[in-house]
């Protein structure tokens, strides 16, 4: 009975943290979203931290060249390509994370898309499908800046949640077995 109670507590803790991390991942705060355009976009970063530049309207992105720099100091922000370009859905639009960057000083920043005419966004990431697709029209592409959500934390939260639920169900079956409600071999049918 002590083993049952300790495993039950462990599974409830795993389920709690799995749900908590999953909600945190899915509720990354959006800073600004705007259509792709040649003009510089001004936006405010409320706190220092890690952020992501996402593309809404497609998943396969080619030839995107973007600069982000401080409006005050004109210092450029270092942009790195996302390690795992996870997909998400926002208001019915398919999106993907594309670039990640760190902000060390809160304040006003400017974003400039450099090669807007050579930008190519397609709906499918599969090369065999994408070569037959036409590019998504530029008016349907939206850039989104949001707080960074680590894909590894997402995987970790799913593993916690699934393992916790599995152990919880095994605990329930064990409890029913010890109470005599489930008897092994009692479910055979005579044909």
Write the layout of secondary structure elements.
Layout: H1 2-26, E1 30-35, E2 41-45, E3 49-56, E4 60-62, E5 66-70, E6 79-81, E7 87-90, E8 93-103, E9 107-113, E10 120-122, H2 127-130, E11 142-147, H3 151-178
Antiparallel strand pairs: 1-11, 2-9, 3-8, 3-11, 4-10, 5-9, 6-8, 7-8
Helix pairs in contact: 1-3
Provide keyphrases for this structure.
3-stranded antiparallel β-sheet; 6-stranded antiparallel β-sheet; alpha+beta; elongated; 30% helix
Question: Would you kindly provide a brief summary of this structure?
Answer:
By secondary structure, the chain is an alpha+beta fold. The protein has helices at 2-26, 127-130, 151-178, and strands spanning 30-35, 41-45, 49-56, 60-62, 66-70, 79-81, 87-90, 93-103, 107-113, 120-122, 142-147. Helix content is 30%, strand content 32%.
Q: Would you mind describing this structure in some detail?
A:
The protein is of the alpha+beta class. It has helices spanning 2-26, 127-130, 151-178, and strands at 30-35, 41-45, 49-56, 60-62, 66-70, 79-81, 87-90, 93-103, 107-113, 120-122, 142-147. The strands form three sheets. Strands 1, 3, 6, 7, 8 and 11 form a six-stranded antiparallel beta sheet that branches. It has a three-stranded antiparallel beta sheet with strand order 2-9-5, with no helix packed on it. The chain has a two-stranded antiparallel sheet with strand order 4-10. The longest helix has 28 residues, at 151-178. The model has no long low-confidence stretch (mean pLDDT 82).
């Amino acid at each position: 009975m002590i083993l049952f109670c300790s495993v039950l507590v462990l599974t409830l803790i795993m389920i709690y943290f799995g749900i908590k991390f999953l909600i945190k991942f899915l509720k990354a705060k959006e800073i600004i979203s705007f259509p792709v355009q040649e003009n510089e976009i001004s936006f405010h970063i409320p706190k220092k931290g890690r952020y992501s530049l996402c593309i809404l309207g497609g998943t396969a992105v080619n030839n995107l060249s973007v600069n982000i720099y401080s409006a005050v100091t004109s210092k450029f922000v270092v942009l790195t390509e996302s390690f795992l370009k996870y997909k998400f859905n926002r208001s019915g639009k398919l999106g993907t994370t594309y670039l990640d960057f760190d902000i060390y000083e809160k304040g006003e920043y400017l974003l400039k898309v450099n090669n807007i005419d050579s930008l190519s966004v397609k709906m499918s990431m599969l090369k065999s499908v994408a070569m037959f697709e036409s590019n998504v029209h530029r008016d349907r592409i939206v850039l989104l800046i949001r707080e960074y959500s680590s894909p590894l934390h997402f995987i970790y939260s799913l593993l916690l949640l699934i393992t916790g639920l599995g152990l919880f169900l095994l605990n329930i079956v064990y409890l029913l077995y010890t109470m005599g409600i489930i008897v092994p071999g009692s479910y055979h049918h005579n044909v």
